[in-house]
Structures are given as C-alpha cells and as structure tokens.
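Q: Hi! First time doing this. I have a protein sequence and I read that you can turn it into a structure. Is that right? Here it is:
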Amino acid sequence: MKKILAIAVAFACGLSVWAQEAAAPAADAAKAPEQVPELETTSSSGNEITALDFVLGLGYNYRKFHKVKQFSRNVGGYYIGGGAGTGAGTSYRDLQIQRLDKQIEQLGERLEHTPSGRMYDLLEARISRLWERRMQLEEGSGQGEEVSSPRIYVGNEEVTTSDCFGYELNFLLPFYKSEGIRLAAALGYQYYDLDTKTTSAYGSSSFEFQMHSYDVGIKLTYELFDSFDLVATIGPSFNVVDMESRSFGVGDSSTRLKMGVFGAVGAQYWIRPWLGVCAALRYDKVFSDAVTRYAEMTLDTWNTDLKLVFMF
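A: Yes, that's right. Below is the predicted 3D structure, encoded as structure tokens:
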C-alpha cells in the first residue's frame, strides 16, 4: 500500500512539473508584444510633385517685329511733291472726289442690271451715301481739319535689332510627373520697348511702342537624355500695348489689350541639379494689329528666347 501511494505521489509531482514547463512558453508568448507584420512598400517618387520641381526662368527674348507702316499728316491738304498716279500738287480732296466718282459709276452700272429687291435697295442706298460724301467734299474748301489733315503714307520703317530684344520671366507650376515626362502650368511675361521715325519727301512721323505680354500655358517636358530635356509649350497670350504716333505736332496715343495664342518648342540642359539653360523657338499669333493714326504694325511674330532656369 505504501509503495502504491509513493508511486502515485511521484507520478503527480512529475505531471505537475510537466504542466508547468508546458505552460511557460504560452505565458511568455502572452507577455510578449504583438508583432505587426511589416508591409512591403514601393517608392512612388516618380509620380510625386515636390517643392524641388518649381522652376523659375530669367532671360532675353528676340522678337522679330514686322516693319512699321508709317503715315504723315497732310499739312495744307496737298501731297508734298505729288505721288504715284496723283500728279504733283493734287489735293487730297480732289483725289477723294475722283475715287468717289469711280465708285458711283461702278455701282450705277451694277444697279442697271439688278432686279428690284433687297440687293437693289442696298445698292441704291450705298450710291446715295457716296453722293452725299462727294457733295460734302466738293463744297468744302480743302483747308479744314477733315480735309487738310488726312494721313499720307510715307513708308515702312524697320525696327532696329536692339529694339527687338525684350526681357522674359517664366514660372512653372508642376501638376503631373511620371518617368521621363513632366507637365506644368507655365506663366510667362515679356516686355518690349521700341520707337521708329520716318522722314521723306512726303512727310514725317514717329512711333513709340511698349508691350507687356502675359501668357498662361501648358508646358510638356520630355527627358531625352540625362540632364537634357525637350520642351513644348502652348496657350493663350494677353498683350497690353501702349502706342503713340506723332506727325507735325499732332499726336495720337492709346493703350489696348490684344488677345492671342502662342506655341513654342525647344530644349534645356541642366548644368547642375538646380541650374539649367533653356532655348526655344516660339510663334505668336495676335488677333489684331497695333494701329494708331500715323502708324500701324502687325504683331504676329516669330520669337527666339534664351534663359537661365532655376529649380527650387
């Protein structure tokens, strides 16, 4: 009996030790902090837009302005020395009367072969207005302001090379970037200041012109090689033009907003990660010309620009 009891006690003690040893790892596991599995992450830096993508450009722009078509005040109501097909000493009033007579004759011939109707009435009204204008000229003395001061064409004046250069400022605001391609909103500003003067046997006039050109576009940059990009920009332009022309003491000035569009292609090279050089060829289409009483100039032009670009 005693032997059986001893065996039972020994068995119970052994079972207790085994249970404690089995429970120890579970307790340690319960006390240990929960391990959170790490998630594998991939860099998306290729599509991120960072502050380092903002670019500022400073430089010069060469804009090949067209010749300025200049006119002179017709002092005294006569062409000085006459003109082609007018004869020396022909007054402006007489020339206008001759032109009106020719127009009236041509319209009268059309009226004879036009049946009654809307077109007939329009032609008849046109002839009536021309006759009224002719009578006003014929009754005038030719010495009043309306007749004695019409403008006379005196020639086309070249814009000097130095006046074709202007300052340029650009700022890029990126909104998309992927491998090798970047898109940015492009804000631009150019300033030009020029003046011309023409004197000939027929008269004299001067022209002063300042233009502040603002543009908002989309710029595409394609990384062709390491540190070398191809660029293209397109968008609308807003041109504030300040003009003044004068002839024999009489002046005419105005400030106008001229709307337009532009497109440019070029290349840029990064000398340093934050410093580069950009050159581009650009064409501007402006929907209206610069016009004053004694000067006119077309604003559609080709441009070339060269600037330093800074990345912030």
